[in-house]
Amino acid sequence: MILNDIAQRLTRSVEAVGDTTREALFEPVIRIGVTGLSRAGKTVFITSLVANLLDRGRMPQFGPSAAITAAYLQPQPDDTVPRFEFETHLAALSAPDPHWPDSTRAVSQLRLSFRVQPTGLLGAVSGPRRVHLDIVDYPGEWLLDLALMDKSYADWSQDALARAKSRGHAQEFLSALETVDGTERHDEPRARSLADSFAASLVGAREAGYSDCTPGRFLLPGEMAGSPALTFAPLPPGEAPRGSLAREFERRFEAYKTKVVKPFFRDHFARIDRQVVLVDALGAIHAGPKAVEDLRQVMADILGAFRPGRNRFLSQLLSGKKVERILFAATKADHIHHTQHPKLTAIMEALLRDARDRADFAGAKTQAMSLAAIRATVETQMPHEGRDLDCVSGRLPSGKQAAFYAGELPSDPAHILSPARAGAQDWLDGDYEIMRFEPAKLTLKPGEGPPHIRLDRAAQFLIGDKL
To answer: What InterPro entries does the database record attribute to this sequence (predicted)?
Structure first.
C-alpha cells in the first residue's frame, strides 16, 4: 500500500511538471473548483458565470473584458469526468416558464477558453494568446469528508453521536441504537437498517439547515447506493470481537476513507488552484443560532482541507498545486434589499474569520462577498405601521408575484455570532425569514448574460490577474 502510494505520488508529480511546463510555455490553464453546501446555488453560479463570461455586457467590474477578443466553450480535458451541462441549465433558466436547474449530485467539469490580446509593448510583439478556464463542480458534502481522513472510527462515532443528540433530528436513529449491541455478531439486515436510519437522520439535519452532515456520500450516494462502503453507522465506544457489528462498521468506515474519500482528493481536489465556496448564509440565519454556529465550524473545517498558498514551480513538483485564491460568497443576495447587502457581507466576514485567517496566514488571497448569480427579484417598498419597508418582489413557486421583507439584519455581526457561539435556541431580538423565489423571465439583449449581483467582482477576483 505504501509503495503504491509513493508510485502514485511520483506519477502525479511527473504529470504536474509536464502540465506546468506546457501551461507556462504555451496556453495557461486556470482550474477553479466551485463548491458549497446544499442549496447554496452551485449549479446556478456556474451557469451564470459562464454565460456572463461568454457575453460580457453585464460585467463592468471584470477588468479583462476589453482584452478578450473571443470566448468559447471547448471539450473538457478529462475524458472520464462528466461535462457540466451548461446548455441544459441555461435553457431551464431562460425558458418561457423558467425554473431552477437540477442541483449538483456528482463531479462535473467545463472548459471555457479565451483569446486574449495583451496590452502594451508585449501585445504588439506577441499577438493574442489563449487562456483556458477549467471549472470543476463538486458537492460540498463530499468536501467535508476530507476531514474524516484524520479520524478513527471511534473518534468519528463520538463526534457523530454528539451531533445527533444535540440537534434533535435523529430520534429514530438514536432509539434504534438503544436496541443494538456492537459486540454482537454482524448481521447484514440489521446493519442495513441502522445505516438507513442514520442516513435519514443526516437528511433531516440538512433539511433543518445544518451544514455538517458527514459522511457526505450518505446524502449523495450516486452509483454507490447500497454498497458496503455506505452501510455503516456510528456506535458507542467499547471493545468488540472480530466478526462483530462494531468491527465490521469500523472496517467499512476505513474502506469509505480509502475507496471514496481518498480518490476524490487525488483525482479532483488536489488539482485545484482557485476555489469558490458558496454559502447560504441567509438560510442558516433563518434556521437559527445552532445552524449558524454549525456553519461557522464547517467553514473552518473546509479550509483545513485546502492547501492554500502561492503556486511555485518547485512546490508543484513536490506536492502538487496549492490554492492561491479562495472566494467565500454568501449567495441569494437578491432575497434582501441592497441596503442590507453590506450587513450580509459583514456577517459573512465574521462568520468566516477563523477560516480566512488560516488561509491568509498561509499566503493565499481570500475575499468574502455577498452576491446573486442570477437576480430573481426587483426591489420595492411596502408600507408597514407608518413606515416604508425596503422589500424585494419576485415570482413564487405558485406563479404569483409577491413582495417580501426578510427582517432587518444587525449592523454588528456579533449580534448573530455571539448567540450562535453561546448555543442559544432562538434569536432574542430578530426574526429572519426566507422566501423561495423562482427565476424571473429573462429578456436578454445581444452580448448580455443573465442579470446578477456582483458576479463581475467575483470573476475579477478569481481570474482577473491571469487575463
So the answer is: YcjX-like
CB-based contacts of 356, cutoff 8 Å, min separation 6: 303, 328, 349, 366, 368
CATH fold, domain 2-138+268-376+442-466, is: Rossmann fold (3.40.50)
Q: DSSP readout, 74-115?
A: E--S-TTSPBP-HHHHHHHHHSSS--PPPPP-S-EEEEEEEE
Cβ-contact 338, 392 below 8 angstroms? no
Strands, E assignment, 205-312: 274-279
Q: Per-residue confidence of the chain (467 residues) as pLDDT tens digits?
A: 444 554 455 444 444 444 444 444 568 999 999 988 777 899 999 999 999 999 999 999 999 998 999 999 999 888 989 999 999 999 999 999 999 998 877 889 999 999 998 776 656 566 788 999 999 998 888 888 888 888 999 999 999 999 999 887 789 999 999 999 999 999 999 999 999 999 999 999 988 888 888 999 999 887 888 899 999 999 999 899 999 999 999 999 999 999 999 888 888 777 888 999 999 999 999 989 999 999 888 888 777 767 666 665 545 544 556 788 989 999 999 999 999 999 999 999 998 887 777 667 677 888 899 999 999 999 999 888 888 899 999 999 888 999 999 889 999 999 999 998 898 888 877 678 888 899 999 888 899 999 999 999 999 999 999 98
Report residue 59 as a C-alpha cell.
460585467
CA distances in angstroms from 323 to 269, 309, 327, 359, 364, listed in the order given: 10, 6, 11, 9, 7
Domain residue limits, the chain: 2-138+268-376+442-466, 151-263
Q: What are phi and psi of 27, to 5 degrees?
A: -125, 105
User: Which amino acid, one-letter code, is at 244?
Assistant: S
